[in-house]
Amino acid sequence: VANLPWVYLGAAALGALAAAVPFETGGQRGLVAWLWLSGLVVLGLWGWSAGQGPEARVALYLWSGLSISVSLVQIWQIISQRFSLDVAKRVFGVVGIGGVLGAIAGSLAGGAVASVLPVRHLLLMAAALYGMAGVTVIGLGRGDPSDEGAAGAGRRPAAGLLQDLKAVLGHPYAGRLVLLGAMASATFTLVDYLFK
Fold first, then answer.
1. Contact between 145 and 177 (Cβ < 8 Å)
2. pTM of the model
């Protein structure tokens, strides 16, 4: 607790450094590499956390903040480059719902795992979810980006959230985006669960 202000300053410094990196140049490959790197780092932190030293907890806190920040920026940049404005109005809300559902699923899964295993093993689950999120991003590369823009150009806006949800989930690319949002949120929630 005495070092918490320094940890917050460290997190702010890492955030400032991350903000200077032009992530838009990496695209989907950059996001996949980042997600897999994040999974490997979390796996390493799991091994390090066995000693229960405060350094491992500080490193986990700093890494999770940096990883989440960078991942979310990259995900939303890819999404914003992929869709036209009309289609984005429909897709972004549903992707956001996927994030909320992922947070709920992450909380439930984290609670279930933590009731059976030591809490540090949630890091193994988070590392696996980072890897699966990377595979999901690879799946986003399938499909023609022009399909999304063209599909929304001639359509009337849907009358409600359920119709938008059905339309978005019915589209292969947009459905995978919702899955990615849910997996990312579940991963971030599991990592965050370690601090509560």
1. no
2. 0.65
